[in-house]
Q: What sequence folds into this?
């Protein structure tokens, strides 16, 4: 089926066209946006197909499985593809406003599309080695985006990102080699069948290694150092795309591994994952409470939110996996929206550090309300989207008797509230430290506000009418466990 | 054949790990490249070493027997290409870092995360 590979081929082709149009920045920008809109249409069509017919697959060269390299779009994968496409469109629409103050670079658009191609293909891959290849495509494009600024702090960030992520990919490659040597399979379904048959004691360390690699990619405790070391050096819109996509690649692969490939995974792995999740939630939110730079605060919150998703996976039930998928979708949109709002605050107030800004509420009340809505959604205040994610996780933990986990999830929510309100009070409520400051009369911010508004409305919509999405994620979890929705 | 390869793999991975933990920038990157090569050897040997006959089904036969496993060879080629590209990128990055920071000690590279001056608050940067 062509449908399953179209969302991978489109951004790759657009990246190529953008690279060819380097000399003409305006043309390049238009090609880039057209490609992104086409990807969005494709993603919607793919999701429609998946909703109608279950899993849409494509085996390269029509080889029979498990010999052909398979691309399989299930509900989890195609929903994440749609989120990636939406975020790409929002970020590219931002390029039509004056909100992004980073100097224009001819490499921005090809690299953005390359990153999205890598992420989308990793969401859809149904083959372990293919997954590794797409991880690497996303890695090299994100490295390019980090280093393209060329300032010392960006190069420094790129180095740390590179070294720590490379350990992750090497670990992944080791696990792939060992699993192939033991089972002789790479396709997810065939691997699952091979493992279910015997289950040699050697498999546990290999699966552990695979999960470790995905945890490094997802920025879980204690492997998250690459994320706060690099994210804050990126320009706002690129940072929004990073935080929406990169950790989700790891989470998506982890959910697949723990549900459809190695199921039932040993109890020990789930127990360990639960503690890693708790420590990620706590260390992320404490890091956010310490920092005063908006980008750093939001980067640390990503670690904490990844902890919630891991906690949901560690519950090892269908409801837990549904909660993890819901949380991943909600987090991609809301966190990206918060970062875009922070970029707009930076554009108007002149700095990302909260100690140098203030007084924006009087000047930009609309932005203040948009930020507050997104922040409360991240915290999980009803009736916003984050509430349902946390509600699902907490009720499932209590049902399973993990009272400590449930209590921790609520406690971390309170700390999240503290640091979100810190941003809001410092940026909007407090008077500006410079009494002569007035917001710049920027000529064109409409596209930026439109993109942000779309994300705020989506968060509100999910919060007010969650039924459809709740049914969708439950079906997605059922499909992952091998059932028919 | 498998024992010499396993020994070589162990030596390369140990040396790569030792270098990767170095504070010197170039040693660290070369160590990572060696680590990658060691793991490529592991990937290559995942198909076992036996016959070296090409995997071609001859006339009048329907089953492939007694040939080399071609799949790990394809996998390792892909992995080699990827690790080569990453090595090139990392060396260029290292050269740029050495030029602009003037130090090859990774502990001196603090410009992305400047050390705090206040006991309870992070450093206040001028540059946004």
A:
């Amino acid at each position: 089926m062509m449908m399953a590979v179209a969302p991978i081929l489109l951004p790759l082709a657009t990246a190529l066209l953008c690279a060819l149009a380097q000399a003409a920045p305006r043309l390049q920008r238009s090609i880039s946006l057209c490609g992104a809109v086409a990807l969005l249409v494709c993603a919607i069509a793919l999701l429609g197909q998946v909703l109608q017919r279950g899993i849409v697959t494509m085996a390269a060269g029509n080889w029979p499985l498990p010999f052909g390299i398979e691309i399989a779009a299930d509900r989890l994968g195609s929903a994440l593809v749609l989120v990636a496409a939406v975020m790409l469109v929002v970020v590219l629409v931002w390029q039509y406003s004056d909100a992004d103050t980073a100097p224009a670079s001819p490499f921005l658009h090809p690299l953005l599309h390359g990153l999205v191609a890598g992420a989308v293909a990793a969401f859809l891959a149904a083959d372990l080695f293919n997954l590794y290849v797409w991880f690497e495509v996303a890695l090299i494009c994100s490295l390019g985006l980090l280093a393209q600024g060329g300032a010392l702090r960006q190069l420094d960030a790129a180095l740390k990102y590179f070294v720590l992520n490379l350990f992750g990919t090497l670990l992944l490659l080791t696990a792939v080699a060992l699993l192939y040597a033991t089972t002789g399979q790479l396709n997810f379904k065939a691997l699952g069948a091979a493992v279910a048959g015997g289950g040699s004691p050697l498999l546990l360390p290999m699966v552990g290694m695979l999960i470790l690699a995905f945890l490094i990619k997802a920025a879980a405790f204690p492997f998250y150092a690459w994320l706060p070391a690099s994210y804050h050096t990126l320009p706002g819109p690129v940072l929004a795309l990073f935080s929406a996509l990169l950790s989700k690649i790891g989470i998506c692969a982890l959910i697949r591994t723990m549900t459809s490939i190695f199921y039932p995974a040993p109890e020990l792995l789930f127990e360990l994952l639960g503690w890693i999740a708790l420590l990620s939630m706590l260390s992320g939110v404490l890091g956010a409470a310490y920092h005063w730079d908006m980008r750093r605060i939001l980067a640390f919150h990503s670690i904490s939110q990844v902890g919630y998703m891991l906690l949901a996976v560690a519950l090892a039930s269908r409801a837990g996996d549904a909660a993890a998928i819901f949380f991943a979708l909600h987090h991609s949109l809301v966190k990206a929206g918060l970062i875009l709002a922070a970029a707009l605050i930076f554009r108007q107030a002149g700095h990302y550090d909260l100690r140098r800004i203030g007084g924006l509420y009087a000047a930009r009340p609309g932005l203040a309300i948009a930020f507050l809505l997104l922040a409360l959604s991240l915290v999980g205040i009803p009736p916003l989207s984050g509430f349902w994610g946390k509600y699902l996780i907490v009720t499932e933990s209590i049902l399973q008797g993990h009272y400590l986990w449930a209590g921790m999830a609520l406690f971390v929510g309170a700390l999240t509230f503290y640091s979100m309100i810190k941003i809001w009070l410092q940026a909007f409520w407090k008077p500006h430290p410079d009494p002569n400051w007035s917001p710049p009369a920027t000529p064109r911010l409409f596209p930026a506000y439109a993109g942000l508004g779309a994300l705020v409305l989506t968060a509100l919509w999910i919060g007010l009418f969650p039924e459809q999405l709740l049914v969708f994620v439950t079906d997605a979890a059922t499909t992952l466990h091998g059932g028919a929705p | 054949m498998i024992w010499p390869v396993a020994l070589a793999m162990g030596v390369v991975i140990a040396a790569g790990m030792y270098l990767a933990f170095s504070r010197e920038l170039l040693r660290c990157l070369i160590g990572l490249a060696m680590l990658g090569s060691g793991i490529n050897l592991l990937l290559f040997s995942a198909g076992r070493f036996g016959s070296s006959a090409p995997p071609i089904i001859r006339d009048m036969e329907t089953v492939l027997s007694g040939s080399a496993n071609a799949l790990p060879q394809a996998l390792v080629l892909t992995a080699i290409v990827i690790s080569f590209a990453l090595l090139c990128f990392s060396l260029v990055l290292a050269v740029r870092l050495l030029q602009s920071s003037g130090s090859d000690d990774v502990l001196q590279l603090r410009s992305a995360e400047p050390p705090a001056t206040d006991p309870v608050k992070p450093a206040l940067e001028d540059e946004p």
User: Anything to note?
Assistant: Chain A touches chain B through 46 residues (CB under 8 Å).
